[in-house]
Specification:
mainly alpha; 284 residues; 67% helix; 8 helices
C-alpha cells in the first residue's frame, strides 16, 4: 500500500492487493496468505523451484521502531534548538533567518521525496530530512516566540504531544479502527485540504494579503483544527502500518520508514497547532 503520510508517497508495510490486512479472527487466514514477508523470494525448493519459507532473524520489532523514531525526532529537536539559538530573529536580520528557514524546508522536502521513491529505507536521507526540517522549525518557532511570546511555541508543543498520546491511547483501546474505507476517506480529505492550502498560498503570493483567508481569522482556526484532525488520522494510519509491519515480520531496516512517517506526521500537527495559537494570539 502506498503512504498514509501527508506527502502521499511513503511506502507502507501492508502491501497486499486489498489494502490493510485484517488481523481479526475472521480475516487471519486471508491476511497470512498475503503476507509479503512470509517467504524469502530468493529461497526456492531445489526439487520444485517454488519459493520456500525462510525464517527471518532480522524482523522488525516495536523496540526498533521506537529507537529509530527517537533518533529521527531527536535530530529534529536538536537542529531546531541550534537554529533557534544561532540564527538571529531580530528585525534587522529577520529576512536572512526566514531565507535560511525556507531554504532548509525546501531541502527537507527534496530529501523526503527522494526517500519516498526509494524501494528501501535510507537512514542518511531520513536523518538528513530530519536535520533540515529541524532548522526550518527552529527558525519559525524562534520568530513566533520573539514576536508573540514563548507561550505560543510551548502551547503548540504540548498540543502536539497531547494529540499523539490521545490517538495512541484511542488506537490501543480499539476506539479507532483503521479500515480501507477509513484510509480512503482520510486520503481524499487530505488531498482536498492540501489543494485548498496551495490555492490560498498562490492567491496570497500573487494577490497579496491573506489570500483566500484560509490561514487567518475564523477560517484559519477552522482549517487549523481540520489540519490537526487530519494529522491525528494520519497518526492512526501510521500506527496501523507499524502494527502490520511487526505482525508481518517486516525487515528491521523498515523501522526507519516508520520513524520517517511518524516524524512527518508530527511535524504536520505541530505546524497546524502553531498556526492555531498564532491566530488566537492575535497575529492574523
Amino acid at each position: 500500500m502506498r503512504s498514509s503520510n501527508p506527502v502521499f508517497s511513503r511506502r507502507g508495510f501492508s502491501r497486499d492487493n486489498g489494502g490493510y490486512a485484517q488481523f481479526d479472527a475472521q480475516h487471519q487466514q486471508a491476511g497470512a496468505a498475503t503476507n509479503p514477508y512470509a517467504t524469502n523470494p530468493y529461497a526456492t525448493d531445489p526439487a520444485t523451484g517454488a519459493p520456500q519459507a525462510a525464517p527471518r532473524t532480522n524482523a522488525m520489532t516495536m523496540d526498533d521502531v521506537v529507537s529509530r523514531t527517537a533518533m529521527t525526532l531527536g535530530t529534529v529537536v536538536l537542529t531546531a534548538v541550534l537554529a533557534w539559538v544561532l540564527l538571529p530573529v531580530d528585525p534587522e536580520n529577520l529576512g536572512t533567518s526566514y531565507g535560511i528557514g525556507i531554504g532548509a524546508a525546501l531541502v527537507a522536502f527534496v530529501l523526503a521525496m527522494v526517500q519516498s521513491f526509494k524501494r528501501k529505507a535510507v537512514p542518511a536521507l531520513i536523518l538528513g530530512y530530519a536535520a533540515f526540517e529541524g532548522v526550518f522549525l527552529g527558525v519559525i518557532s524562534a520568530a513566533t516566540s520573539t514576536y508573540l511570546g514563548p507561550g505560543v511555541v510551548i502551547q503548540a508543543v504540548m498540543g502536539t504531544m497531547c494529540v499523539f498520546a490521545s490517538v495512541l491511547f484511542a488506537y490501543k483501546m480499539g476506539w479507532i479502527r483503521v479500515t480501507r474505507r477509513f484510509y480512503g476517506f482520510v486520503m481524499a480529505a487530505a488531498l482536498g485540504f492540501i489543494l485548498l492550502m496551495a490555492a490560498n498560498l498562490l492567491f496570497s503570493v500573487f494577490g497579496g494579503g491573506d489570500g483566500l483567508g484560509f490561514r487567518s481569522g475564523g477560517l484559519g482556526l477552522l482549517f487549523g483544527a481540520l489540519g490537526v484532525i487530519l494529522g491525528a488520522c494520519f497518526l492512526a494510519l501510521d500506527f496501523k502500518q507499524v502494527e502490520d509491519g511487526v505482525a508481518y515480520g517486516a525487515p528491521r531496516e523498515e523501522a526507519w520508514l516508520a520513524a520517517f512517517g511518524l516524524t512527518m506526521t508530527l511535524v504536520w500537527i505541530y505546524m497546524e497547532m502553531l498556526r492555531i495559537f498564532q491566530i488566537l494570539s492575535g497575529d492574523d
